[in-house]
Amino acid sequence: MLVMLNSTPSSPLDLLMSNSSSTLTGGAVAVVKDSFSNALTKNIVAMLVWLTLSIINGSMVHTFLRHRLFYENPRYIMFICMVINDALQLSLVTALYVVSYIFRKIQASFCCFLIMTAVLTTRSTPLILAGMAVERYLSICFPLHYSQMCTVPRTLLLIGVILILTVTPPLTDLLITIVYEPLSFFHTSIFCDHPLLFRHRSIYYKNCVFDGVYLSFVALTLLYTYCKIMLTARAASTGLASVKRARNTVLLHGVQLLLCMLAFVVPSLQAALISLFPRFSLEIRYIFFLVVYIIPRFLSPVIYGFRDELFRKYWTRYLTCGSPRAVRVRPVLVKVNL
Q: How many CB atoms lie within 10 A of CB 240?
């Protein structure tokens, strides 16, 4: 069944919203809908992955909240913020992916809320990674002043600044749209995609400038902290293990940043692959959806949760015993028996 549309979705959200193949033909788009069996299989896999990662993320948040030593430490506060941010984004993109198979078009006002939230969570991750890298840099390069420089109030202030920076672009997109579009536009039904919702040309150029500046800032921050930690590792005569761990942590931040940046470059790559292999367009979209939005959200909590010895200790206790209180009783029983 072919349906003719006026434009082609081209933003990162196209990866998770499109459930059809498309090729340009004379300025229009020929869309072939996915079969019921393929759609059912893809949605079941997406929901199972979301459920698994939600359980993992929920157990991490529960472990964090149950122990005071974690939410009094700036490192773990930023870590749990990243876990919550990734969990929200994963839930949102999975919901959008599933809903796109049920409702091809939704009301513009509801689409606006979904897209603004998706953009907010997508752009928050790189800045949180930069903050975590700076925290590791201060702990290694300024160990004597670390407790004064990295405090809980300053960490919360940094999280607030990150929130303001990431909410500003989608908020300005909304304001520009309100100025140039009639209010009746938000009551129409559209395909939920960023270029179709925020259609004014200035929005595109504004976001290009913002994304270029803030991604460059994050990349330079990670590069600077990694180089400084490397220099400290060469000069240090003791505590090499902690320095190596910090270096590897920042290196992982860089890998994760590259995965996050895929969301900004994949639409063009996806369009090129679909033009070369139009018969496999549905599979290409689904693979990119998994690689760009699912795998990074799977790696982040698992890698950082297992790499940190202290957090892994309490986290595995929660996963194996279910209740932290039961764990505290065991040492007492052993002492009594002795």
A: 11
